[in-house]
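Hi R.,

Here are the chain sequences for the assembly we discussed:
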Amino acid sequence: MISIDQYAYINKLRNTHPMEKFALTMVTLIICLSFNSWLLHLCVITSMTILILYGAKIPVSVYIRLMLIPFIFMIFGILGVALRVDNEAFIMLYGINIGEWVIGFTMEGVFQAFAIFMRSYAGVTCLYFLTLTTPMVDIIWILKKLKIPAIITELMTIVYRFIFVLLETASTIYISQECRLGYTSIKKSYYSIGHLLTNLLIISFVRARELFIALSARGYKGELVVLEEKYKVSKKNILFISFTEILFLSVAVLF
Amino acid sequence: MKTNILDINELDFIYPDGTHALKKLTVSFEEGKKIAIVGPNGAGKSTLFLVLTGTYKPSGGKVYLADKDISYSRKDIMELRKNIGIVFQDSNSQLFSANVYQEISFGPLNLELSKDEVKRRIEDAMIKTGIVNLKNKPIHFLSGGEKKRVAIADILAMEPKVLLLDEPTAFIDPKTSNELMDLFDEINSEGKTIVLSTHDMDKVYTWADYVIVMKEGAVIAEGVPHDIFLNNDLLKEADLEKPWIIEVYQELIKDRRKLVTKGVPRNKKELFELLVQC
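And here is the predicted structure of the full complex:
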């Protein structure tokens, strides 16, 4: 999670207009989910991967590691779709006999699993493109522009900021416990982790109070008003996005 | 003519749990001065700051902002906050946004200024605190010293008359803390009053125009730095450490009567000049 967050700030597409990146992601995602064409999904995976690796310059090793995360979940999901239990062995491409039953793959099942696999990965690459190139602050900015209620965007702002404060606090407590041999046996570990968590809860309350005091001292009146910097709209990018989406649509419709 | 920006008269503050944090505290801050508040932990320094920014309502006593009686009504509290800015000791509890630019814009926007004025103030505060290069970095990537600079820029952008700094050099490395002290000098030279609380007596001695000593919720002494730090009884009573310059000076003049007339050295340079004459 942290590494995605870091790349969001240092990638080469960081200063591209957030709405352009968001539009590319969302429109592609909608096309992917509306059409069941594996060729389309393959096109999306390829183009998003090229954008992530060559556009945003995310290291290949990081990208592969990220792509492996959903893979594990997907394997189990796909097995459920592809495997079939039947008592007629002849429809199976490959099967294992258990008594009079056969567990195996059918042509139809394998193809369906493949389609689901491609579609999921197409969606995953779209979302990776957005999260790897757009920092949370920009995503919140997009939501504000889309007129999402202020309560949600303000909460997101504060939650995002304080995730890091909380992680820092948790790691300090963990290290201090470890230095005092708090994790040397299972029993001690349970005890220590329990204290860590209760402490974190209390610290969160204290933090919330301190934050309220600090915001009040700066004239907080119940609304987190902030000024955002302007992004440059690029005609070139908009043209590129439109062209790509038309291409995806034609692949989806024609094949 | 000297004018006071803040007059505090017999201020009392009792926390809900019964802790009597401020006891009939009377003190005045002269406009345009560099004031240091010193005293042991629990002396009430931070509580005083929070009362002065309208976070806590005093249980008794009066606060005057430029001779105007502050009643702690909503309107008066807003008035206090416009004029008095506070930088908290722990930057993490002050910084709410992950983006430096947004973070600094919050205060001036609450003052209901025009967008152009807010932008000007943000740029100005970022240049003064030396954080222009951090503009596009998220706050959680910054070091402690950098976060402190952002926290100071937060308040500078509101252009308050008085800047309260709660232990600004705590947990900060010597180089950064010296740079911060220089920054406070620079802000002060624009006519702003600076009030800082600290435990670093060496810094107080060379930096402050005026020192206020607090203990157990009251002011037990105030004066120019060398008056405070030459008073052994007072230092003992308030558990304060003697600045090393004073210590060396006192050792030096023990049996050299003629050096006494030269006056107490204010900084390292003056002390070295005195050493040469021995």
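Residues 38 and 164 of chain B are 13 Å apart (CA to CA). Chain B has two domains: 33-54+82-240, 243-278.

Let me know if anything looks off.

Best,
T.
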